[in-house]
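Reminder to self: C-alpha cells first, then the designed residues, so the page reads top to bottom the way the pipeline ran.
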C-alpha cells in the first residue's frame, strides 16, 4: 500500500516536471528575446495563481505560483494580457514604443524554442530508442461477426494496403494508420485495398458509430475490425480489471479455460461466451506457467467490449532520426487540424485534449516500464503541437501577436490601445472557455476510460 502511494506520488511529480518543462521553455524563448530586443519585462512566472515565492532582480519580478501548470512572461509592450497575467505595474502609455519587427521576433521566439526543445528531445530519442509494438502491422486479426467489415467481405488474415486510396503503415499508431484513416473517412463507404492470396483487391465497406452519453466525447466511425496480435501483454493499466487479477507486462497467454490460445482474435469469442463468469487463464511468465483468474462483467445492452486495461503486443526499441520525428509530428498535427475544419469529417473539437487530458496521458505513459522513453517521444509531438498551434493568427496566441505587429507595420502606426485591449480580453476569455470545454471531456475520460485499442472494434 505504501509502495503504491509512493509510486503514485513519484509518477505525479514526473508528469508535473515534464509538462511544465515544455511550457517554461516556450516562455523562456519570449523572455530572452524580449531582453535581447530591449522590451520591458515585468514578470517571469513559473506556474499560475497566487505566488508562493517572488523576487525582483534587474527590474524583473521572478515568481513561483501556487498552481503547478505552466507559466507566463508579462511583456506589456507586446500586447495587453491582463486577462491572463493580471494587472501590469506600468501603463503601456508610459512605455517607449516598440518596432513591429521587435514584436514579431519576441512573439516568434516562443514557438522557435518549442521547436528547438522538440529537436533536442528527438535527438535523445534517437540515441536511447523509442518503444514500438512489434505487432502494429496492418494485418487483420479480428472481424466482428455481422459488423460492417464482415458484411463487406473483409476477412481475418487480409493485409490492409490502403484505406480510401491512402497507404497505411500501421494498424493503430499515428495518422498513417488504419485506425486514423477510418476515423478520417468522409464518404458513405470506406474503400479498403487489401492483399489476399498474393493479389490486391479493393472492398468498399460501410461503417457504424456507437451511441455515447452526452457527457462523453462523440463516437467516431468504426468498421469493427482489429489487428492480428499474439496474446502477449505489453502494458497493464494500474487499477484495471487485469491489474487486479494479477496480469503483468510481458505475460503471454497460453490457454483460457484449458483451451490453447495462439492468436489474440481467439480471445474475443471466449470472453463473449463467458460474460458474468470468470476465466481460468494460464500465462507464460519468465519461462514458467502462472495460473490466473479473470472475472468478467455481465454483458451490456450495447454489447460493448470489456475494458480489461491491457495494451496488447510486446515492444521493441526503434531509433528514428530527429528530422523524421519532428516531420511526423508536424504532419500528424496538420492532418488533425485539417480533419477538424473539414465539413464532412466526424472529427470535432471535443476529440482534442486539453491540459488535463495531456497530463493524464503522461501519467499513463510513466506507468510503463519504458515510461521516460515514451514520454520523450510523446513530448516531441506535444512541443511541435505547442509551436504550431501558437503560430495560428488568433489574438492571445503568438501568431496573433505576429499578425497584429504586421498590421501595425503596414499602417505605420500602433493599433488603438482600447481596441487592442478589447480584442485581447475577448479572445482570452474565448480561449479559457475552450480549455474548460476540453477539460469537461478530459474529466469524463478519467471516470469512464475507453477500452484499449486492440480490444475494441475499429
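Designed residues (458 positions):
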Amino acid at each position: 500500500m505504501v509502495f503504491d502511494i509512493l509510486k503514485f506520488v513519484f509518477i505525479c511529480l514526473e508528469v508535473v516536471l515534464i509538462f511544465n518543462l515544455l511550457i517554461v521553455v516556450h516562455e523562456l524563448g519570449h523572455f530572452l528575446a524580449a531582453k535581447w530586443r530591449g522590451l520591458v519585462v515585468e514578470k517571469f512566472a513559473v506556474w499560475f495563481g497566487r505566488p508562493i515565492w517572488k523576487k525582483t532582480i534587474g527590474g524583473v519580478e521572478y515568481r513561483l505560483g501556487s498552481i503547478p501548470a505552466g507559466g507566463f512572461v508579462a511583456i506589456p509592450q507586446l500586447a495587453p494580457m491582463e486577462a491572463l497575467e493580471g494587472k501590469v505595474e506600468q501603463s503601456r502609455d508610459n512605455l517607449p514604443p516598440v518596432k513591429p519587427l521587435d514584436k514579431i521576433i519576441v512573439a516568434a521566439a516562443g514557438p522557435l524554442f518549442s521547436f528547438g526543445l522538440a529537436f533536442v528531445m528527438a535527438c535523445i530519442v534517437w540515441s536511447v530508442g523509442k518503444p514500438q509494438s512489434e505487432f502494429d502491422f496492418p494485418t487483420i486479426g479480428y472481424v466482428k461477426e455481422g459488423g460492417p467489415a464482415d458484411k463487406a467481405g473483409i476477412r481475418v488474415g487480409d493485409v490492409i494496403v490502403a484505406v480510401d486510396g491512402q497507404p497505411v503503415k500501421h494498424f493503430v499508431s499515428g495518422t498513417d494508420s488504419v485506425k486514423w484513416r477510418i476515423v478520417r473517412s468522409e464518404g458513405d463507404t470506406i474503400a479498403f485495398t487489401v492483399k489476399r492470396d498474393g493479389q490486391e483487391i479493393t472492398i468498399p465497406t460501410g461503417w457504424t458509430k456507437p451511441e455515447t452519453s452526452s457527457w462523453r466525447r462523440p463516437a467516431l466511425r468504426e468498421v469493427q475490425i482489429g489487428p492480428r496480435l499474439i496474446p502477449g501483454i505489453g502494458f497493464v493499466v494500474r487499477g484495471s480489471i487485469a491489474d487486479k487479477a494479477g496480469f503483468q507486462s510481458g505475460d503471454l497467454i497460453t490457454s483460457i479455460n484449458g483451451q490453447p490460445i495462439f492468436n489474440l482474435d481467439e480471445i474475443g469469442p471466449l470472453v463473449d461466451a463467458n460474460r458474468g463468469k470468470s476465466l481460468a487463464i494460464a500465462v507464460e511468465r519468465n519461462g514458467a506457467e502462472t495460473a490466473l483468474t479473470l472475472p468478467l462483467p455481465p454483458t451490456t445492452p450495447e454489447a460493448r467490449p470489456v475494458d480489461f486495461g491491457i495494451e496488447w503486443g510486446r515492444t521493441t526499441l526503434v531509433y528514428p532520426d530527429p528530422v523524421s520525428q519532428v516531420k511526423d509530428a508536424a504532419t500528424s498535427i496538420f492532418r488533425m487540424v485539417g480533419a477538424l475544419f473539414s465539413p464532412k469529417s466526424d472529427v470535432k473539437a471535443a476529440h482534442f485534449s486539453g491540459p488535463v487530458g495531456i497530463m493524464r496521458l503522461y501519467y499513463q505513459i510513466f506507468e510503463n516500464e519504458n515510461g521516460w522513453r515514451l514520454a520523450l517521444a510523446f513530448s516531441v509531438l506535444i512541443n511541435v503541437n505547442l509551436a504550431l498551434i501558437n503560430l495560428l493568427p488568433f489574438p492571445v496566441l503568438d501568431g496573433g501577436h505576429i499578425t497584429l505587429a504586421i498590421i501595425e507595420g503596414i499602417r505605420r502606426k500602433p493599433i488603438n490601445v482600447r481596441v487592442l485591449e478589447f480584442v485581447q480580453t475577448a479572445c482570452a476569455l474565448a480561449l479559457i472557455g475552450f480549455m474548460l470545454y476540453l477539460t469537461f471531456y478530459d474529466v469524463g475520460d478519467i471516470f469512464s476510460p475507453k477500452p484499449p485499442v486492440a480490444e475494441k472494434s475499429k
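Confidence is low (pLDDT under 50) at residues 449-458.
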